[in-house]
Amino acid sequence: MSEGYIRKGPVLVKESGLDQKALRGKTVWIENAQTDKDFQYQSKARAEGITSLLVVPLMLGKKAIGVLRVYSSEVRKFDDDEVQFLQAVAHLSAIALENARLHQVLRTDFDLLVAHEYRVDDN
């Protein structure tokens, strides 16, 4: 991916049919992102040479917390093994993100507790 494509702008879920589907828990395959109405950045995909893509939801239980995208420069159908592998990677990624979020919450709570104890001991 070029720097220009990476900085193309935010994915706006309300303008991205494929992300709307993925965030409802569905794995979505697009044969040609350059022409598919559900792909938000068709012209950028054309300039980047992106053709097919697979979008897999990052699920925590029954809630999608994000998506994993895989791009291809040629038209291709992802086979069942590839889809299952990407779903497994997405699942592990969702767990890792949740663990990082929980770690940050615990760290913040710990820091607040230590700061509070420090002030109590000073008085």
Share of β-strand residues: 15-25%
Q: Averaging pLDDT over every residue, what do you get?
A: 90
CATH architecture field: 2-Layer Sandwich
Estimated structural class:
alpha+beta
Could you spell the SSE succession in H and E letters?
HHEHEEH
What is the level 1 CATH name? Alpha Beta
**Overall shape:** elongated
Quaternary structure classification: single chain
Helix content: 40-55%
Task: Note down, in words, how this protein is organized.
There is one protein chain. The chain is α+β, with helices and mostly antiparallel strands and 123 residues long. The chain has one domain (3-122): Beta-Lactamase, CATH 3.30.450. Helix content is 49%, strand content 16%. The chain has four helices and three strands. The protein has helices at 3-6, 17-22, 42-48, 80-122; strands spanning 28-30, 53-60, 63-71. Strands 1-2-3 form a three-stranded antiparallel beta sheet. Strand 2 and strand 3 form a beta hairpin. The model has no long low-confidence stretch (mean pLDDT 90).
